[in-house]
Amino acid sequence: MEAQPVGQWLDELASKASTPGGGAGAAMNAAVGAALVSMVCNLTIGKPKYAQFEQSMTEALGKAEDLRGRALGLAADDAAAFDAVVSAYKLPKATDEEKQARSAAIQAALVGAADVPLRTAALAAEVIDLAASILEGANTNVISDIAVAASSAKSALESAVVNVEVNLASMSDEQLRKETEARLGEYTSAAGRADALVAEVRERIAR
Fold first, then answer.
1. What are the domain boundaries of the chain?
2. How far is 185 from 193, CA to CA, in rounded Å?
3. Tell me: the pLDDT tens digits for 76-128?
4. pLDDT above 80 for 1
5. What keywords would UniProt list here (predicted)?
6. Does residue 40 register a pLDDT over 80?
7. Positive or negative torsion for Cα 142, 147, 149, 152
8. Cα separation of 128 and 49, whole Å?
9. Is the pLDDT of residue 205 over 90?
10. Per residue in 132-142, pLDDT tens?
11. Which positions ≥6 away from 55 have C-beta within 8 Å?
């Protein structure tokens, strides 16, 4: 993912191939958000005017770089997880034993397919909170990019939620579904925090 040209990746996303798809797109949105946080930090660090925020910005930069790398990894993981689901559905089902094995393989693959966007949702929430944490000390010339970072991460979060839900709909383990839904619920409130951050940035710009 890191070495692939953006245009080539978008061509693949637009193609008839089933992967990369929406899950990978969600992770890439999270990566964009993290990259923008890094950019704001880089344009703030070393500026005398913001010297008092040097340490916090440096720490935020390290976190943003880590999040960006993890997001790219999730984009690749999503494609692999989807391919596993497709492979499971293609297993033979001529006999009762084959049907049972196929059903078990499908359910196992769905668990993996739901886990990737669940982790994407968690990461997107981290990006949103990290973006909010740098607003106070950020270079005022690039605070609009903090809003864009939050918006990108919010898009990643909302997209990830849909991708978790589509896999949960086919899962037969009711307890696992409830547990996954509960975990997902821990991250969804970050969307509201993203909206609040965007509103705060816009208010500052209008002053």
1. 19-206
2. 14
3. 999 899 999 999 999 999 999 999 999 999 999 999 999 999 999 999 999 99
4. no
5. Transferase
6. yes
7. negative
8. 25
9. yes
10. 999 999 999 99
11. none
Nearest 5°: the CA angle 44, 47, 48 is 140
- pLDDT tens across 45-64, in order? 999 999 999 999 999 999 99
Amino acid at residue number 188: T
CA distances from 161 to 97, 132, 164, 166, 188 (A): 34, 21, 5, 9, 8
Quick one: tokens of 4?
Answer: 């692939």
Dist. CA 28–CA 95, nearest whole Å:
41
Tell me the two tokens of residue 120. 């994407």
Residues in the chain: 207
Q: How far apart are CA 77 and CA 120, in angstroms?
A: 10
CB 191 within 8 A of CB 157: yes
The structural architecture, per CATH, of the domain 19-206 is Up-down Bundle (1.20)
Would you state the structure tokens that stand for residue 122, as one six-digit string? Answer: 């968690």
Q: Tokens 């960006």 appear where?
A: 68
Share of the chain above pLDDT 90, in %: 92
